[in-house]
Amino acid sequence: MFAPLSIPSPEWSYFDLGPFRIHAYALCILAGIVAATIMTSMRLTKRGAEPGIVLDIILWAVPLGIIGARIYHVLTHPGDYFYPGADLLRTLYIWEGGNAIFGALIGGAIGAYIGCRMTGIRFWSFADALAPGMLLAQAMGRLGNWFNAELFGLPTTLPWGLEISQSNPAFPVGLPEGTLFHPTFLYEIIWNLAGVAVILLLERKLTLRWGKAFAVYLIWYGLGRSFFEAIRVDPSEMFLGVRTNIWAAWLAVVIGIVLFIVQSRRHTGVEISPYVPGREWNPDDADIESDNADSEEDDHGDGAATIQSTAAAATSTHGPNS
After folding, report:
1. What metabolic or biological pathway is this protein involved in (predicted)?
2. Where are the domains of the chain?
């Protein structure tokens, strides 16, 4: 018997829609991407960027982020994919779980840099606008781990422990049925949502531009992830007795601190525009183009009316009845 307040694992992780199988994990990831895109677009537009320009950036950032996330996961869990008789196609089965945020950051950063270069948006302006949305997306994505009943923590007697069936392949050998585990997915959801609030509150007190909001994101997420990773029971590659993801989390914290210090010294003023010099978007130009288009349409309309009038006059003067 489980504790009365324990968290049950879902009894399903996918459903079939006609010939298609829809995985809850994928829906959680997709919902997170949509939420982050909307939030980032609103923040970037408020800072002077062209409405909707975020879509031109995420067209590069999202695919490369997903690829990076999967590659990082596979490389840090080689025993799950590379062994005698292994089906190497499983390295592509992202719906089974296994997308590492640190790989997503690397791949997504490369994609975002390409997108920013093409649109003229400053890379750090985009990163700052993205920072709270990134945490929101990660919080929503962690629900996918709950649906997959994966990446849970150590056994616990806390009343909010997570119920995991003994038939689950990830259930630790030797533990009795009814053992509860730390719901690391829930811990990280709470931590990430708190991080969204922290960044938004700090922006009211401090000038978090030039990459400093993203630096706070790296520090906040890195600190939380280093703890949650330490209590997980899923196998992982080790380096010097420490899980590789913990090393990555510590590295994120270090990069965040260095980025905040360096950018604070390099940029002491206000970020005037999210665009690089010479690539600015002027809403007045868009209005002028719209007015010119309307004017051309009117000119075409007047020309058509003139032609019609001329044709009518010609018909009345030289028609069959004359």
Report:
1. Protein modification; lipoprotein biosynthesis (diacylglyceryl transfer)
2. 14-266, 285-322
Tens-digit pLDDT profile for residues 116-143:
999 999 999 999 999 999 999 999 999 9
pTM: 0.82
Q: Which residues are annotated as a binding site?
A: 142
Distance CA 200, CA 222 (A): 18
Q: Are 47 and 129 in contact (CB under 8 A)?
A: yes
pLDDT at 1 over 70: no
Q: Residue 34 CB: number of other CB atoms within 10 A?
A: 12
Tell me the C-alpha to C-alpha distance, in Å, between residue 109 and each of 100, 131, 210, 268.
14, 12, 15, 24
Distance of CA 82 to CAs 70, 76, 117, 153, 170, Å?
A: 15, 11, 37, 25, 18
Return the pLDDT at 59.
93
Helix, strand and coil content of the chain, in percent to the nearest 5, comes to 65, 5, 30
